[in-house]
Amino acid sequence: MTQMNEPNLYELESIDLNARDTRIIYSTSGFTGEPNFNYKDAQREKSFTGKEIRTQNTEIGILVTVELEAVPDLKTLTATLLVPGINLEDSASPFKTILLLTTNRTSIAGPSLVKGPLQTYEIVALQGTAKSVLS
């Protein structure tokens, strides 16, 4: 039986560098054994570890979500990276994917006071490399 060679490090950047100039480094298990997610765009630079990173296995790949911003009684901004399944042939494999930026509009009195859509979305096309590295 052949063992799959799955990546544990993903380095990505926006395809259209004018689109937020986004860069992401996601490691499924860093030096501490916990996942790490580093996010940078034209407006912010943030790092996340462990339970700050939420993952969900789906039919279309793994959704990796972090909260970029929280403004009480106004909004939260999350970034969700779609990570496809990848079987590495060599030590690295190029791939393309998307990042979904979701703005959740909030109100101190609950969602019924928010008029219009509660969520708005922005999609950022990404390209990069999946690698398998020793931690």
CATH topology tier name = Lipocalin
User: The biggest beta sheet, please?
Assistant: 9 strands, antiparallel
Strand order of the largest sheet: 4-3-2-1-9-8-7-6-5
Tell me the total number of β-strands. Answer: 9
Could you say how many structural domains there are in total? 1
Explain what this protein looks like in three dimensions.
By secondary structure, the chain is mainly β. It has one domain (9-131): Lipocalin. Helices cover 0% and strands 54% of the residues. The chain contains no helices and nine strands. A nine-stranded antiparallel beta sheet has the order 4-3-2-1-9-8-7-6-5, with no helix packed on it. It is elongated. The two termini are 25 Å apart. The model has no long low-confidence stretch (mean pLDDT 88).
Based on the model shown, name its key terms.
0% helix; nine-stranded antiparallel β-sheet; Lipocalin; single chain; elongated; mainly beta; 135 residues
Quick take:
The chain is mostly beta strands. It has no helices and nine strands.
Secondary structure elements and pairings:
Blueprint: E1 9-14, E2 23-27, E3 36-40, E4 45-49, E5 54-58, E6 61-71, E7 75-83, E8 92-105, E9 119-131
Antiparallel strand pairs: 1-2, 1-9, 2-3, 3-4, 5-6, 6-7, 7-8, 8-9
